[in-house]
TrEMBL record:
EC number: 1.1.1.399, 1.1.1.95
Span of domain ACT: 315-385
UniProt xrefs under InterPro entries: ACT-like_dom_sf, ACT_dom, D-isomer_2_OHA_DH_cat_dom, D-isomer_DH_CS1, D-isomer_DH_NAD-bd, NAD(P)-bd_dom_sf
Associated pathway: Amino-acid biosynthesis; L-serine biosynthesis; L-serine from 3-phospho-D-glycerate: step 1/3
Keywords: NAD, Oxidoreductase
Organism, scientific name: Lacticaseibacillus sharpeae JCM 1186 = DSM 20505
Principal EC category: oxidoreductase
PANTHER family: FORMATE DEHYDROGENASE 1 (PTHR42938), HYDROXYPYRUVATE REDUCTASE (PTHR42938:SF47)
Protein name: D-3-phosphoglycerate dehydrogenase
Family, as annotated: Belongs to the D-isomer specific 2-hydroxyacid dehydrogenase family.
Classification of source organism: Bacteria, Bacillati, Bacillota, Bacilli, Lactobacillales
Gene3D superfamilies: 3.30.70.260, NAD(P)-binding Rossmann-like Domain
Length: 390
């Protein structure tokens, strides 16, 4: 029996996928956390916690170093809310180009018998521009950015994409009409609209700052529906004041940008659809069950991807530091315990490594304890093949 603790409102579509081998919120020392936006940074992680699954793409509410030291794998659910964010971004492009909010506010304040005549005469102040033929720079063309690029292309926009970390898999999802920029400057220099879709980390904090804003064409519209802090809001205010930016649209409130007619702030609505919440919950639950039952890893933040068919009776998994001779020490320890290795797979991600060892004889408690005592090993798990338990 596995124990799972949930935070926030997790969609029933996901929770219903847990089998009878999982108990929800019945232990303070669970095997797994299933979360959305709860801030875990100041919390102590339970010693038994093996996995945290975040229902959503962002993970800045999870203390990665603390989790890794605890032997806890951290996962997100990339792509689960990508369509929801894409639709919101496209809506904001249309709202910005047609001045829809200003026009609706004006019309809503008019009354009287001559409203039709007056609005007809005065509506020219809300004349907008069509998106057809305009240029959109998409900064980050992963799950969300690729969908935005497709939708913008379908609207007749010219799309320029920039992503120095684009994977081969992600590249397959970008429309062929997207022009690849080789630098951020190249991407934004001729754009009418700029939208950012990159994760928040040290490299992307203030990715769009004063220098980048100065390189944009006067009158550019900037959109940030990725994360607070990727755009320097103080620099945005200055760019709006001097006319470099025409409008700023974002999903993240900040004192610096409040109460301005040229800024539109939505209350973190990017992934707030029924479908996106269902998708994230389902993907998060599937991730927890797959990791706990097979040890296989995909979409982990702190572990490398490693997926190995589980064909033996037992499996050992080890989280450990990525340093020389770790695999050698592990193999030697098992050999000394009389355990024959049927298969071994190892992969690394920066300073962390992960090893899967398949065996047909069940290792003793003493053997597992010896593996645990190897310096730089954070967690050892023994798994029985789920197929053998049915």
């Amino acid at each position: 029996m596995y124990n799972v603790k949930t935070y926030n409102a997790i969609a029933r579509a996901g929770l219903d996928r847990f089998t009878d081998q999982y108990a929800l919120n019945q232990s303070d020392n669970p095997d797994a956390y299933l979360i959305r936006s709860v801030n875990l940074r100041d919390q102590e992680l339970p010693t038994n916690l093996k996995v945290i699954a975040r229902c959503g793409a962002g993970y800045n509410n999870v203390p990665l170093h603390k989790a890794t030291a605890n032997g806890t794998a951290v996962f997100n659910t990339p792509g689960s809310n990508a369509n929801a964010v894409k639709e919101l971004v496209i809506a904001m492009l249309i709202i910005a180009s047609r001045k829809l909010f200003s026009a609706a506010k004006y019309a809503g304040q008019n009354r009287g018998a001559d409203i039709s005549t007056r609005t007809e005469a005065e509506k020219t102040q809300f004349n907008g521009t069509e998106l057809l033929g305009k240029t959109l720079a998409v900064i980050g063309v992963g799950h969300v950015g690729a969908l935005v690029a497709h939708a913008a292309s379908d609207l007749g926009m010219h799309v320029v994409g920039y992503d120095p970390y684009l994977s081969a898999d992600d590249a397959w999802h970008i429309p062929t009409s997207t022009v690849r920029a080789h630098s951020l400057t190249e991407a934004i220099a001729q754009a009418d609209y700029v939208t950012v879709h990159v994760p928040k980390n040290d490299e992307t904090t203030h990715l769009i700052g004063a220098a980048e804003l100065a390189q944009m064409r006067p009158g550019t519209v900037l959109l940030n529906f990725a994360r607070l802090g990727i755009v320097d809001n103080d620099a945005v205010v200055a760019a709006l004041d001097n006319g470099q930016l025409d409008r700023y649209m974002t999903d993240f409130g900040d004192d610096a940008i409040l109460n301005r007619p040229d800024v539109l702030v939505t209350p973190h609505l990017g992934g707030s659809t029924v479908q996106a919440e269902d998708n994230g919950a389902v993907q998060g639950v599937n991730t927890i069950m797959n990791f706990l039952e097979t040890g296989n890893v995909q979409f982990s933040i702190n572990l490398p991807t490693l997926q190995v068919p589980f064909s033996t009776c037992y499996r050992l998994t080890l989280m450990h530091e990525n340093i020389p001779n770790m695999v050698g020490q592990i193999a030697t320890t098992l050999a000394a315990s009389g355990i024959n290795i049927e298969g071994m797979s190892n992969a690394a991600k920066k300073n962390e490594a992960y090893t899967i060892i398949d065996v047909n004889a069940k290792p003793s408690v003493a053997a597992i304890d010896q593996l645990t005592q190897i310096a730089a090993v954070q967690r050892v798990r023994l798994l029985a093949n789920p197929a053998d338990l049915k």
